[in-house]
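Postdoc handover notes: sequence design on the structure in folder B. Input tokens:
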């Protein structure tokens, strides 16, 4: 692989640190646990890992409320342990990406504490969005914006003299005040943060809320104030996707390229870009901005051949057309797990959801570009849908009182071995409890069982990754659609490698001529049953 282009077709594994592996017995995963799991990830065959935030934080949003961007929270270890992790990852040939959170910080960050301590109009407040309220006595928020996690996007502070004072903006929770990127101090601070971690050898950054950062300078009312409370496809255009944000990514790209020139290792910027269309998405991955941005449309597409073909075609036209490659995802730490989502939120591990999830995984790994795998997807883990209310920690639940969008169910700690919780997740005593309870049925999905069963999700992923790494037809490159029966999706990669998926709506099995390489389920030669995907080598261009 060209070291300057490694990211273009890389497969990156998302490590949600607090749920991966606990080395200290406190029930919370940590950096030493990640280091211990690196051989497992090497065996799986991924090219790199993306680490969720491990910085000092009050953990109001599990680390996405950062109090210090240049250190490690004692929950997860220290900088020495991070350096050991980097050393081991480098030895194993595994890239390491960090999660950086530039849109907002923690209300415990020194900057925000200073802002609260000073009078309105001070320099510290200018690093955030402070504004006077409306109505008598300024008792109403400055505008009508709503937060992504529920409730108003503004909170009022008490001034030093004890009187009600100004309001500050937080597009997620009150514990996560939004930074004001129109203040040059903010950009200068993040320059320092980037260089701090690049100097420690990281290979790049996953950028949280990459379409955020800049807000409309006048902070006017939104014509649709509840947009942010619904879906990512309906967002407040005054708070997201402002044109000035592209200047940030051009500058960050120049910083990464400076390090590339210095040592010949290209550093990656991959953005969490939530915008309504692939065309808008493409603006973020132009040649001098972010290298890549997650393409969430595949994740959100309904289980339908036409829907999948539409989003794939749009991505190939609009995103790959910029010179970047598409960054495919089926799941992450904010989404219902794939098995459950495709099972239409049915019982855990439903046969339909599992079959669809296996087929979708094989489809994703056959597409041109990069792919990201959320931890536990390679085990076929279902969403834990019955967590008791008293263990839920997601701020969405705290803010809304509703379980509808709560994300704890996909964050339950991984099962590694054994027949009862904690399933090898923690090294503590038998009474040690993971930070979220693991259901008894997790025993069926434990890593040791998955590795021993050649029919498991793990082997499907591992075999697909091995073929992808060894076959020039896969990874980056063109895609050509095939004429297929209704309900079947088929395309050719390179010279004669065919990927076909029967979404289960075709009245008859889809015939494919050739040599089968890998199938997501039972597959007779030349026949593709419903809710199954397979790869073939074939000279036939119109199966």
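Designed sequence:
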């Amino acid at each position: 692989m060209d070291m300057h282009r490694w990211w273009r077709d890389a497969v990156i594994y998302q490590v949600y640190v607090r749920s991966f592996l606990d080395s200290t017995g406190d029930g919370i995963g940590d950096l030493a646990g990640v280091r211990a799991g690196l051989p497992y990830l090497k065996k799986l065959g991924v090219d790199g890992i993306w680490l969720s935030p491990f910085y000092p934080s009050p953990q109001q949003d599990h680390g996405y409320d950062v109090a210090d961007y240049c250190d490690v929270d004692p929950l997860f270890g220290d900088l020495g342990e991070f350096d050991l992790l980097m050393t081991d990852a480098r030895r194993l040939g595994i890239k390491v990406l960090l999660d950086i959170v530039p849109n907002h910080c923690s209300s415990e960050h020194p900057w925000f504490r200073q802002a609260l301590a000073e009078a309105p109009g001070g320099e510290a407040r200018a690093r955030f969005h402070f504004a006077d309220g409306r109505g008598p006595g300024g008792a109403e928020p400055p505008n009508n914006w709503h937060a992504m996690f529920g409730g108003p996007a503004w909170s009022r502070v008490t001034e030093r003299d004890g009187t009600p004072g100004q309001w500050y903006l937080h597009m997620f929770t009150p514990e996560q005040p939004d930074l004001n990127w129109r203040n040059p101090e903010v950009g200068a601070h993040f320059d320092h943060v980037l260089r701090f971690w690049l100097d420690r050898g990281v290979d790049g950054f996953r950028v949280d809320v990459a379409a955020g950062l800049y807000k409309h300078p006048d902070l006017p009312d939104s014509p649709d104030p509840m947009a942010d409370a619904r879906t990512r496809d309906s967002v407040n255009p005054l708070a997201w996707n402002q044109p000035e944000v592209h200047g940030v990514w051009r500058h960050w790209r120049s910083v990464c390229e400076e390090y590339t020139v210095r040592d010949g290792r290209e550093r990656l910027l991959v953005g969490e870009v939530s915008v309504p269309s692939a065309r808008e998405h493409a603006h973020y991955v132009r040649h001098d901005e972010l290298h890549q941005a997650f393409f969430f449309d595949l994740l959100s597409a309904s289980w339908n051949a036409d829907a999948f073909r539409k989003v794939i075609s749009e991505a190939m036209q609009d995103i790959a057309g910029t010179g970047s490659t598409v960054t495919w995802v089926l799941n992450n730490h904010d989404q219902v797990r794939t098995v459950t989502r495709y099972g239409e939120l049915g019982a855990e591990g439903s046969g339909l959801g599992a079959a669809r999830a296996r087929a979708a995984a094989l489809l994703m790994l056959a597409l041109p570009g990069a792919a990201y795998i959320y931890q536990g997807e390679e085990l076929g883990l279902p969403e834990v849908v019955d967590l008791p209310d008293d263990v839920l920690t997601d701020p969405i639940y705290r803010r809304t009182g509703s379980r509808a969008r709560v994300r704890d169910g996909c964050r339950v700690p991984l099962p590694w071995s054994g027949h009862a919780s904690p399933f090898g997740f923690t090294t503590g005593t038998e009474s040690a409890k993971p930070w979220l309870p693991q259901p008894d049925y997790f025993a069926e999905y434990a890593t040791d069982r998955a590795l021993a069963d050649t029919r498991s999700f793990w082997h499907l992923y591992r075999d697909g990754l091995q073929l992808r790494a060894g076959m020039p037809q896969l990874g980056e490159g063109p895609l050509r659609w095939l004429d297929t029966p209704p309900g079947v999706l088929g395309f050719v990669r390179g010279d004669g490698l065919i990927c076909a998926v029967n979404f289960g709506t075709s009245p008859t099995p889809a015939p494919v001529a050739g040599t089968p390489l890998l199938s997501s389920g039972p597959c007779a030669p030349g026949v593709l049953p419903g809710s199954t995907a397979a790869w073939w080598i074939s000279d036939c261009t119109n199966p």
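Context for whoever picks this up: The two ends are 32 Å apart (CA to CA). Don't rerun without checking with the PI first.
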